[in-house]
Write a structure and sequence with these properties.
By secondary structure, the chain is α/β, with parallel strands linked by helices. It has 15 helices and eleven strands. Strands 1-5-4-6-11-10-7-8-9 form a nine-stranded mixed β-sheet, sandwiched between helices. A two-stranded antiparallel ribbon has the order 2-3.
């Protein structure tokens, strides 16, 4: 486990501006450079490093170029839009930014079976004909989880970023000679962010719901090496079934999912009011699955009220030592698949509530199928993590600014009223929400207190053991290159055709 990963941008205050421009380094034509424009925007928004905590941002831009298919709702280039908003506002000045490596197969096999991972690694549009339909279906491959070039690389990239984020949280939990906050240790953080992660549906040996590798399960497993209890909260519009099932028999993980529930018409059809974990009361995981089944059209005030009530009670009873928050953007109003009426600030309220407990916090992405609004959301929630307040008008130098301008696209604002664009009938009343809250409180009463677990501190030098890891990474890269050499020309041609295909003509 290597904490000393390459840092893209170690924190440095935003450059001092003179006459609206940074000192020196002017462009040759007299116009401000992009760096100068970003520095100006950062100053206008008061972007600076938080004094009370450290935030880290974990990302590998290679994840952006993968493509599920022209008609598939999952668009990894939404991550590029998110990155561009974050950087254009200058939020990088408030964070430690890590360029992450891909997860290795042995790291992903901490949860997933070797046979399944080997299948994903070998699977390409050219090799899929070697597997019959029955074999592909047994591993979850189909319309929802298609085969595309670079599938295994895509999975290892987003998973690697999530594991990188966890390692910085664990580093903050290690003994340090520094006084004050624990994250004063080099390479440590109190809040860690990976918007490319949060793929909560994948099972141990099967893809599901656009998810192939469950980075969340792997993250929580790693956190449990130092944390006695982890609270997992899921605010995606879809039930966090994969994570719930993975920890169904554990009393060290409490899962809490807020989602639309319709067992016949809405994926995955699980997470109903009676879904509380194993039925056997002697199973340690009994009652440790909390589910809030919602209907269409829930509004901001209703969602915030229900979230605060249930999360605060879960924290009081379970006493977690760390929190993982899956921030799926398909619970926003106007989503291509979801039918809630949440605006960006209401969704972000969940981040603020989780921050208020002062616990190590892992923020992950997830669903979200209207890319421009997903980018707005995750930029806003990055700002919340860094105590930044962003101006509503998007900076003019944002790349692909056309994605955010015009009627129906938010008119160039960070916080458009999404329900003005598309509004769903609200099927909730307060009686229904209060009943859900009462049921969750009643379920929490059955927990036998927070489990006490004897934890062993990881050795200090664990973060310095890089040589074996680097050698294994090199070996995996060489094997992939050798494999891609077969029919490589066709694969490269497809990648060229499909790279960021959504940027032109596909912005919904």
């Amino acid at each position: 486990m290597d904490i000393a990963q390459p840092v893209v941008q170690t924190w440095d205050p935003a450059p001092t501006l003179t006459n609206g421009l940074t000192n020196g380094n002017h462009s040759t034509n007299g116009l401000p450079t992009i760096d100068e424009l970003v520095a100006r925007t950062a100053q206008e928004n008061g972007i600076e490093r938080p004094s009370t905590h450290t935030v880290s941002f974990h990302y590998n831009s290679s994840v952006e170029s993968h493509h599920f298919g022209r008609s598939h709702p999952m668009k990894p280039w939404r991550l590029q839009l998110t990155k561009q908003l974050v950087l254009s506002y200058g939020l990088q000045y408030a964070m430690d930014c890590y360029e992450t490596r891909s997860a290795r197969m042995d790291e992903m096999s901490e949860f997933h079976t070797p046979d399944y991972l080997s299948f994903l690694r070998k699977l390409t549009p050219d090799t899929m004909k070697e597997y019959n339909e029955e074999t592909q279906q047994s591993f979850g491959i189909g319309d929802d989880c298609p085969v595309f070039d670079g599938l295994y690389d895509y999975c290892s990239l987003y998973t690697g970023s999530t594991l990188s984020a966890v390692r910085t949280l664990l580093a903050a939990n290690q003994p340090s000679s520094h006084a004050g906050r624990t994250s004063s240790r080099t390479g440590a953080s109190d809040i860690a962010i990976n918007w490319s992660g949060g793929l909560h549906h994948a099972n141990k040996s099967k893809a599901s719901g656009f998810c192939y590798v469950n980075d969340i399960v792997l993250a929580i497993q790693l956190m449990l090496t130092q944390h006695p209890r982890v609270l997992y909260i899921d605010i995606d519009v879809h039930h966090g079934d994969g994570v719930e099932h993975a920890f169904a028999s554990s009393d060290r993980v409490l899962t809490l999912s807020f989602h639309k529930y319709d067992p016949l018409e809405f994926f995955p059809g699980t997470g109903g009011p009676n879904s509380m974990g194993p039925e056997n009361p002697h199973n340690p995981g009994a009652k440790h699955s909390l589910n809030l089944p919602l209907k269409d059209g829930i509004e901001d005030d209703q969602y915030k009220w229900l979230f605060d009530k249930c999360v605060r009670e879960a924290v009081r009873v379970f006493q977690p030592t760390a929190i993982v928050l899956q921030c799926g953007g398909d619970s926003l109003g106007g989503d291509r698949l979801g039918k809630f009426n949440l605006n960006i600030r209401a969704h972000g309220h969940c981040v603020k509530t989780c921050r208020s407990f002062g616990l190590p916090l892992l923020l992950l992405g997830g669903g979200g199928y209207t890319p421009r609004n997903v980018a707005r959301l995750w930029c806003h929630e990055t700002a919340l993590a860094t105590d930044s307040q962003l101006l509503n008008t998007l900076p003019a130098h944002v790349p692909h600014i056309q994605a955010f301008r015009g009627p129906g696209r938010g008119d160039g604002l960070l916080y458009p009223t999404l329900t003005d664009i598309k509004h769903h009938t609200n099927d909730h009343d307060w009686a229904y929400l209060q009943e859900q809250q009462r049921r969750i409180f009643e379920q929490l009463r059955y927990l036998q207190g927070a489990p006490s677990v004897q934890m062993n501190q990881l050795p200090d030098n664990i973060w310095e053991l890089r040589e074996d890891i680097e050698a294994a990474m090199k070996e995996e890269d060489e094997e992939r290159e050798e494999q891609n050499g077969v029919n490589g020309d066709g694969a490269r041609a497809r990648r060229v055709r499909e790279k960021n295909i959504g940027i032109r003509g596909e912005i919904p």
